[in-house]
Amino acid sequence: MLRLNLDRIFKVKGITKTNQYLMKLGNSVGYASQLVNDKSVSIRFDKLEMLCKAFNCTPNDLFDYKDDAKKPLPEDHALHSISKKDTIGEVNKLLNDLPMEKIQELYEVIKNKGSILDK
Q1: Which residues have CB under 8 Å from 86's CB, separation 6+?
Q2: What digits encode the pLDDT tens for the residues 27-61?
Q3: Which in 29, 40, 85, 114 has the greatest CB count within 10 A?
Q4: What is d(CA 49, CA 56) in angstroms, rounded to the nearest whole number?
């Protein structure tokens, strides 16, 4: 099943007030609620573009694919390429297990080598 997965990008970007964030982008209360609660059945291209611009991402970052148990796709099907793992949960667990000294080192690497990460 293909779906718009904003929850993942909200976590990645550290956005906790999701409805308010979407309304600041110009969405109505009802539409923001539909997007946040995974109730949207369609999305217009201008809204998709607006989200991509706001999150600095591509449409593939916003969509997720999970196989239908009754009609699974072959493993090599292209839709599997946009399946997402809970990397935020994994990163948080890894960070929680690190000593503060290592977290500081990681911060320095990210801060000083950011241009490498942007490529």
Answers
A1: 8
A2: 999 999 999 998 888 899 999 999 999 999 999 99
A3: 40
A4: 10
